[in-house]
Amino acid sequence: MHPFSLFGFDGSFWIIEPDPILFTCLGSLFSIFFLRYGMSVLKTEQDKDERSLISNIFESAGESLYTLIQDTVAQVDQRLFSFIGSIFTLLAFCNCLVLLPFCEEPTKNINVAFAFGIIAFFMIHFLSFCYTGISYWEHWFVTPLSLKRDLFITKNYEIFSFFEYCIRCILNIIIACTLFPFECLTRFSLLISLSFRLFGNIFGGAMVASLVDEFLESTLLYKVIGLCTGIPFLVMGFFGLFEGIIQAFVFAIVSLNNIGILSGEALTKERKKD
């Protein structure tokens, strides 16, 4: 589709593929229904003695996720729990859509994988800023020299210590400005890492599954062997279900670890206060 061709934007960059958008929306609907259903089940079955198997599964999954987040960042709040749980559920459903007839995983498209990377990158730094406050910018502007004047100011040499303090400030500014492009490169490399890891693994699995299908469809003998041995179902189950869930878990864990790296000390202090 070339929706912007009327405005002169007819390059390959401006092409919109409807299938990834459709399948992403379908995966979003499944994840929203799944999460809403789980919340409604847990609310209606509050008595632990009378809970059903489905309610116990949802409760165990929530407790496992809570424990995982707590072990990683030491402090759990609703925003962090909701982000990690929702991004994992959404990616899991999107990656496993290939199990449905006439559906494909939208994350094998680089644009969809990059969109998920942008969402995760934004939320990682947004939550880190919420937890650490103004000290969040220390990750972008490196100031290695200490500015605590009581460390080097004495009564006898207060004038010289003042000049030392000014020199330290100037050197910190120079170092911060010099290292800022490298810090930006380091931070934005996370966006590339998240996007291409997800895209590469899902796209590679889809290519292997398609090659197996083409091989089994080449002759009648291979079709019979495939139906008798169940190879297509095994391949689809591995690359569709197992790998899809694993990649969603890896994506969520990497996002969680980066939040812990950027705001681990602040969350630990909050936990000690509590």
Question: Secondary structure elements and their pairing?
Answer:
Layout: H1 18-44, H2 53-73, H3 78-95, H4 110-132, H5 158-216, H6 220-229, H7 231-273
Structure description:
The chain is mostly helical. It has one domain. The chain contains seven helices and no strands. Helix 1 (18-44) packs across helix 3 (78-95) and helix 2 (53-73) packs across helix 3. The N and C termini lie far apart (55 Å).
Count of discrete structural domains = 1
Task: Give the SSE order as H and E letters.
Answer: HHHHHHH
Uncertain runs are: 269-274
Largest sheet: none
Q: Helix fraction?
A: over 70%
Shape: globular
Rg over alpha carbons: 25 Å
The N- and C-terminal alpha carbons lie at a distance of 55 Å
Strand content: under 5%
Mean pLDDT: 79
How many extended strands? 0
SS field, number of helical segments: 7
Find the structural class using helix and strand composition: mainly alpha
Keywords:
disordered C terminus, 274 residues, mainly alpha, 73% helix
In short:
The protein is mainly α.
